[in-house]
Amino acid sequence: MSTRRQSMYRLAAVWGVVALVPLVGCENGSTVGPDDAPSGPSRAFGIWSPGPDDTCTPAIHDQYAVVGSDGKLYPTWHPPVDPVSGCTFGHEHGRDPRGSDLYSAVGSMPFGYANEAGDLFAPHVGYKVEWENDVEMSLGFGDVGEALLRVTCDVLVALHQGSAGSGAFVNPHHELQYHAKCSDGTQLHFAKISTIGHLGEFSRSCESDVPIVVAPNPDNIDGGGRRLIPDRTCVERHVLVADGTNSSFGSGLRESWQMSESLRSADGQRLASVGPYFNVFNPARYYDPSAPDLVGNAVDLCYEVLPDGRRARGGRCEGLVLDSTVAPVAWNDARSPFDGAHRDVDINSIRISNRDGPNVWYTDAWGRNGQTEPFPNSLRQFIAKMNNEVVTPSGPSIGRDRPYSGTGVHAPN
Question: Is pTM, for the whole model, over 0.85?
Answer without folding.
Answer: yes
